[in-house]
Automatic annotation (TrEMBL):
Lineage of source species: Bacteria, Bacillati, Actinomycetota, Rubrobacteria, Rubrobacterales
Record's keyword annotation contains Nucleotide-binding: no
Superkingdom of source: Bacteria
Ranges for domain HTH araC/xylS-type: 186-284
Protein species of origin: uncultured Rubrobacteraceae bacterium
SMART domains: HTH_ARAC
Xref: InterPro entries: AraC-bd (IPR003313), AraC_XylS_family_regulators (IPR050204), Homeodomain-like_sf (IPR009057), HTH-like (IPR037923), HTH_AraC (IPR018060), RmlC-like_jellyroll (IPR014710), Tscrpt_reg_AraC-type_HTH (IPR020449)
Keywords associated with the record: DNA-binding, Transcription, Transcription regulation
Full protein name: HTH araC/xylS-type domain-containing protein
Amino acid sequence: MPGSGPIVPFVRDASFPVRSAWYTAPRRLLDYLLMYVQEGEMIAHVEGREALIRPGEFCLIQPGELHSLEGPSDTITPYVHMDVFYNAGREQSFVVRSGRVDVSGSEGLMQPRLEAVTGVRIPTRFVPANPAQFRDTMLKTIGIWQRRDFLGQLESHQLASGLVLEMLRSYSRGGADSPDRPEFLNWITSHMSLHLSEPLSVADMAGRAGLSPSRFSRVFRDRFGSPPHRFLLHLRVQRAQDLLQHTGLTMRQISGQCGFSDVHHFAKTFKKVSGQTPGAYRRASQPSR
């Protein structure tokens, strides 16, 4: 393995693939593969472990990891292939094709893994401290890189530096994932908003934050001034208000999209939080004729 060299991100390939059910055969990469699941679901098999990447979530495949990827159904999975550390031969490096496991002969081009250099371990399915900002930066990186002009290449490498910094910050000790820091849990509201239609539990969210449910609830209340369950209910109702005002969806459809178990539960919770029934809110929010 070559020396790590300075951190100088270099985007090698980036795209917004829209695919029907697909599969990539096992391979080992020379560089890093960062992916975002925009639509559908993706399964990553990495070194004998399996990770399910859902919509709104991120995946990182590090150099040399034996892996295969599959999308069981239609997906949109923006990706970035990049070097993180400078290598004088980076222009000769390449994206390893599907099915190629043996990369002997190219060891001098293989990037070192982040944990080996920085001591920071980033899991295959990772949660940045601010998912919405990370997503926007990643998508901007891809779009600008695809312009293929000098300024676009330069800016895409600069943006990639921000992506690497955010990943390291999110998982370093004493970083954004430390409950003692004020920015801890900044990512959780974006995560809630992206998954409102799903049965989010305090235990699930606590697991993502690396805390026990009781500790998570205390830290959440200190950070946002409300218990996580109540905060989530308010987000669901706010989303329902937006759908009632701006769409013609039925109460059953809105109930499902906002994560309520049934229409009765939706109506009861909506009135308790907003003071109005969903129907009354919809009528009051319609423009007068």
